[in-house]
Design brief:
The complex is a heterodimer of chains A (562) and B (125).
Chain A lengths: L1 H16 L14 H16 L22 H10 L6 H27 L2 H12 L7 H5 L2 H22 L3 H17 L1 H21 L3 H19 L3 H4 L1 H8 L22 H19 L5 H18 L7 H14 L1 H14 L7 H28 L6 H13 L5 E4 L15 E4 L5 H11 L6 E4 L18 E7 L2 E5 L20 E4 L5 E5 L13 H12 L3 E5 L3 E5 L5
Parallel strand pairs in A: 1-2, 1-7
Antiparallel strand pairs in A: 3-6, 4-5, 7-9, 8-9
Helix pairs in contact in A: 1-4, 1-17, 2-3, 2-4, 3-4, 4-5, 4-7, 5-16, 5-17, 7-8, 7-9, 7-14, 7-15, 8-9, 8-10, 9-10, 9-14, 13-16, 14-15, 19-20
Chain B lengths: L16 H20 L4 H23 L7 H25 L6 H23 L1
Helix pairs in contact in B: 1-2, 2-3, 2-4
Classes of the chains: A alpha/beta (562), B mainly alpha (125).
Amino acid sequence: MVALAALAFVQLNAPFSQWRWEDSFPPHFTTVDPLVYTWHARQVSEHEDLYTFSDSVRGLPHVIPTYPPLQAILTASVGKFTTVHIHHLEWIMVVLETIWLPLLVFLLARRLFSMDAALLTLPLTLFPPTMWLFKSYIGHWGDVISMFFAAAALMLTILLTEKQKFFTSALTGVLLAAMFIAHAFEAVLIAAFTCGWLTLTGMARKEKRRLILHAVITGAVFLALIAHFFPVVMNVPLGEVAKGQSPLLGAGKIPDYYPRVRLSWAMLLLAVPALVFLRQELAKARISSSRATYVVFLVFLAAAALTYHLGTGYRFYRLLYSWYFFYALVPALGAFVLLSTALSGRKRLIRPIVLIGVLAVSFFLLRGNDAQFKQMGSRPLADQTMWDAISWISEHTPKDATVFTLNEFIHGFPQYFTNRNTLDVDLSKDAQLGNIIALCNGTYPDVWAVRCNAGWSGAPTDKDGRIRFITARHGWNSFLWTEGPLCKDYLPEKREGFASQASYLPMDYFDYMMVQYRGTGKWLGQNYDRCMGFFINESLARGLQVVWNNDEFAVLVNADGQ
Amino acid sequence: MDSEETEDARFGPGLARPPLLALGVILLLGSVAALLTPVGWVAALSLTFALWFCLVLPGYCILLHVPGIDSLERILLGVPVGAAVIPLLLYHWNTLGGGISLTATAVFVLTISGTSLVTLWVRDR
C-alpha cells in the first residue's frame, strides 16, 4: 500500500513540479487557479497573518480574504518546518490530499468488507483515468481538500452508527468545520448528510434520543467553529447574485474544458456482483448499519451531483469527480465476490491472486496516466523566462509601484506574484484586445484599455456588481469595504465599437510595464512579436527606458513614474 | 466477509510504536526521493518530519480517544484529523491577533498531542 501510494504521489506531482522543490519558480501549472491558491499560501506564510493579505491588492495594504483560507493555513504551518519552497509545498499538499482520499476509501473497504476487497480498491482509486484527477491538476483545490475531509467525516459517521461517543461526534463536527473553511459548498451537503443520517438512523432504532443527540452535537460543534468565518464567506455570494448566478449553486453550464465523466464498462460490470451481494444482505436483513451508511452516502452524493441535469449548476457536477473515489469500492467488492466464489474451496489462493492483480492493474493504469500528465506539464502557463521577469519586478521595484502587463496573452498570467499593484490586459475582452490591434496597425494608443483586477482572477463584488475588498471588521457581520485607490477615477466603461468594458488609463498612470516581445506565439511556432517590437521602439522614442530584459521579456520604466 | 479486528487504545509503551513506524516509513520515502531525484537531502528529510509532526502526530494522539479503531486507522485517519484541528486552531488564534508562526504551530501540535496522552493516562490509571 505504501509503495503504491508513493507511486501515485510521483505520478501526479513530478510532471508538474519537475522535482524543483526548493525553487521559487512554481510548478508547471496549466491554469490560473493553482497559481491563485499558491500565491494565497505564500501570502499567509510570509505575513503569518490572514488579514494582511497582499501588498498588491488594488493599492490596499490590509485586505480580509473571502477565499476559504484553510488550505493556505495548512500549507503555511507545515512550511514552517521544511526547506521546501512554499510554492512547491502547496502542490505537494494538494497531491497528498488527492492520494489520501483513496487511502481513506481503502480503510472504509477494510472496515466494511475485508482486507482483500480493500486492496482491490487501491489500483482503481490511486491510478484512475486522468479525468477523475481533473480537480487536482486543473486547480479546484478547495474541492480536493474538502473531499479529503469528507471521507474522514464519513468514516467517523460510520463509527458513530456503531458506537456512540460524544468525542467522536464532536470530532465529526470539527472535520465538517474544516471542510467549510476549506471550501464551503461541499461542507453544507456533507453536514446535511451526516446530521440527517444520524437522525434518521436514530429514529429507526431504539436508541432514538441518543443518536439524535449525537447529530445535534456534531451540528453544534460545526456551527460554533464556522461562526466567525461564515459572514466573511457570505460576501462571495453577493458577487454571484450580481452576475446573475444563484449564490448556492453557482454558474449553470459546465465549462468546455471540463472532461465529461464516464464510467468504463469494466467498472460497471464489476459492480453487478457487488450489488447482488448487497441485495442478498438486505433481503436477509443482515446488512450492517455501517454498510448501509456507506451505500446511502454513495446514493446521496450521486443524487446531489446529478441534480446538475435539473439545472442546479456545475458545482454539483463537480461532485462527480470526487464521487468516483467512493464508488470505486463497489467494483472492487464485485471483483472480490467473484474471486471468492470462484476459489471457494481454495481460500489460501485468494490473497496472492489479489496482490498480483493489484500490482498488474496498477502498473497498467499508471502507464496510461504517465504520458498524459507529462504532456500537461510540458506546456506550462508560465515558464522560466516569464518567472525571471516577475522575480525582477518583485525584487527591484518600490513596494507601491504600479505595474502594467500589456500583453497578457494567456489567461491569467501570474503577475500577482510580483506583489505589486498590477493592471493587465484581458485578451478575451475586445476593448482590451484593441491595445494590441492598434500596435499591430502601427498606432501608439493615447490611452490604454486595461482590467483593474489588481491581481485577482475574480475580485469579490457587491450586490450591484462593483468590485470591493473588505479592509476591516467591526462586528460579527459588520464590515468596512472599499474599491481601493487603484483605478478609482477610471471606472470601467463601454466605448463605441466594443462589446466589452475597460478602464481607459493614460500612459503616465503606470510606473512600470512588463512586455513580452519574443515567444508570444511559441506554441504556434512564432518567435519575434513585431507588434510589441513596435511598442518598445515607440516607447523609447517617447522617453521610456528599458530597465531590464531577457530573451523574451522587457520591463520599461515610465520616466514620469520615477 | 468480516471486517478487521479493532482495538481500544490503552496507555502504555505500545502507543508510541505506530507513529514511530509511520515516521520511519516516510523518512525512508524521503531518503529514496533524495537518492533518486534532484530533491536535496535537507528538503526531503525536513518535509517528511514536517508532515509527520503537523499531521500524523496530533491526529494519531486525538484518535486515541475514539474507540473501535485499530492502529492503521489511527495513522491514516489521523492525517485529515491533524490537518483539520491544527489549522482550525491557527485560524481562530489569528483572529485573536496571534501569528500563523512556527512557534504557534509547534505549541498547538505539542499541546494537543500532550493533552491527549495525559487524559488517556489519567483515564487508564
